[in-house]
Amino acid sequence: MVMHPGMDRLQAFDEGELSAVQRRSTAEHIAACERCRDTIEWIADVRAAAREEVPPPADRAWDMIAARVAAQDAVLLPVDTAGPQRTAPGAAPLLRAAMLLLLLAVGAAAAMPGGWLRSVVESIVPGLGEAEQGMTGAGGVDVAPPAAAAPAVLFVEPAGGALHITLERPHQAVRIHVRLSGAQDLEVRALEGAAGATFRTSAGRLDIVEAGPGSVMLNVPASLGRVRIDVDGRTFLLKENGQLRILAPSADTVGSEYILPVGSPAGLH
Amino acid sequence: MNMQNAVTLNDNTDLLSAARDGSLEALGDLYRTHSRVVHAVAYRLLASHADAEDVLQDVFVGLPRALRSYSEQGRFEAWLKRLAVRTALTRLRGQQRRREEPLDALAPHAHGRDTHPVERLAARRAIAALPAPLRTVFVLREVDGYTHAEIAEMLGITEANSATRLSRAWSALRREAR
């Protein structure tokens, strides 16, 4: 019976990623096997198709960008430095290997879903459950939970010692987190669905339009004399004459952070 | 002549600094140099020219502010490309409006080998038709060359899940080809 190399091996062969020994044995097989030659050609064709040059953007694109910049349109971009860290680089492989040995050592009973030891291991090895869940899905349907959106960051300069922030038509599940900071500019971070909102800025002003469900984190310069946060025309926070007043229908505090839910607590799920 | 006051836009550091300070001329120079890369990254992830152009616009409109977070360590284009990937992924996640027919892949591409045009066309259609979670990983790995660790970080998934999605993408393409 002829043993054919797997797809992974053929893909690695096509990319030149095999060791010299593996490459030689795979090449010998391919030379004698029409089926694997066809597969290799197909892999190369798919990769070439995927990597084909994309037509350039339309000529009008730059004109539209320049017009938006001139209109002081602002876009909150998910910058690299704010990316979520799910695993500790370098340490994760060793830690996972150690945990795998631990699981094998204590037997299959402890590895059963819902078992206490598994819960402990999952709490130590982030993503273990998710990884296995992703591998056990059937029929090509990805059963992994939705990916967390990368946070997006924006800075807004105050004008005349004042800032006015508005949220227009936010989702009811938006939560506004406010902290006072020692920075000069307002720092805005939008998480999850809130990162898909439209952000517009002008001197001393930020408008956040149609934020999706998620969090808007506002690091407000403590030195500012006047700060106002409005949600659909209703004032949620007001700072003036050195006094900070929370006027939102419901609010909570965690340490030095104020949390202002847009919707009523009963409406949150 | 005071040479110190002259902004030499050919110098990348000065160019980035000028763009960060709001110079439209500097932003235009960056656009001319890098717009094709940003557009191509977005198009391959979103499989739609309209969505790709929206991402292109958003990236360059937001670039002056985003540059405040650029540490100037490493290549600017690699940083910009990751910014484009993240922006496209944010759009993909929040996409609730109409889906453009993903058969933009039918459009003629500028270059490429002519050895198997029919198979190439079918492959482009099949890639564009992959479910978004599979297409995303396939493109990031096979076209953009990111590692599974990098993909996992960008998508908020595990490396194992990234590898699984890639394997499923290849399997789906193989089924489609038969």
Keywords:
heterodimer, A: 269 residues, alpha+beta, seven-stranded mixed beta sheet, six-stranded mixed beta sheet, 13 strands, B: 178 residues, mainly alpha, 67% helix, disordered N terminus
- Share of residues in strands of chain B: under 5%
**Assembly state of the chains shown:** heterodimer
Low-confidence stretches of chain A: 81-149
Mean pLDDT of chain B: 81
In one word, what is the shape of chain B?
elongated
Number of strands of chain A: 13
**What sequence of helices (H) and strands (E) makes up the elements of chain B?**
HHHHHHHH
Cα-atom radius of gyration of chain A: 27 Å
Mean pLDDT score of chain A: 73
Q: What is the tally of beta strands of chain B? A: 0
Largest sheet of chain B: none
> Nearest-angstrom radius of gyration of chain B?
19 Å
- Helix-and-strand structural type of chain B: mainly alpha
Largest sheet of chain A: 7 strands, mixed
Could you characterize the architecture of this molecule?
The complex is a heterodimer of chains A (269) and B (178). Chain A has 269 residues and is α+β, with helices and mostly antiparallel strands. In chain A, 32% of the residues lie in helices and 27% in strands. Chain A has 7 helices and 13 strands. In chain A, the strands form 2 sheets. In chain A, strands 1-6-7-3-9-10-11 form a 7-stranded mixed sheet. In chain A, helix 1 packs across helix 3 (34-51) and helix 2 crosses helix 3 (34-51). Chain B is mostly helical. Chain B has 8 helices and no strands. Chain B is elongated and about 55 Å long. The termini of chain B are far apart. Chains A and B meet through helix 1, helix 3, helix 4, strand 1 and helix 7 of A and helix 2, helix 3, helix 4, helix 5 and helix 6 of B.
